[in-house]
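Is it possible to get an amino acid sequence alongside its tokenized fold?
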Amino acid sequence: MSINDEYIEFTIPKQKTIALIAHDKKKKELVEWCEHNKFRLEKHFLCGTGTSARLVAENTGLPVRAYNSGPLGGDQQVGAKVVEGKIDMIIFFSDPLEAQPHDPDVKALLRIAQVYDIPIANNRSTADFMITSRFMEDEYVHRVLNFDRNVEKRVKEGNLV
């Protein structure tokens, strides 16, 4: 990690930690996608929320570290790991046609992935583009707003609410 005034640079390593998440009606699709990409995924560390992690592990033989299910805080656990720099990308097959009881948690996870500038796929085609990207085979350096510096600046300018 290197620091300059406005941004902090982070390196996503060659061997990535990938979070796997799917809403109930998308779990089968996630499992199929993982099976299809097993030869790529087995090079990386995998984790996921509750049932999604269990189903991927049982149906593909891939080792997947399981967090709580989404409605029981799993999305928030994944978000916390993103903040800690311990998750490098997220594959989240969300269901846009079904209301989710934990929708605020889902939105918080999507937001934190944006804040920390990590790749996140919300559907199969995006996941396909990500998993076949040349960046999956190499390190990737990305810049994130230097939040401490930003807050410091806002305090000095009197813009902190």
Q: What stands out?
A: The chain has a mean pLDDT of 89.
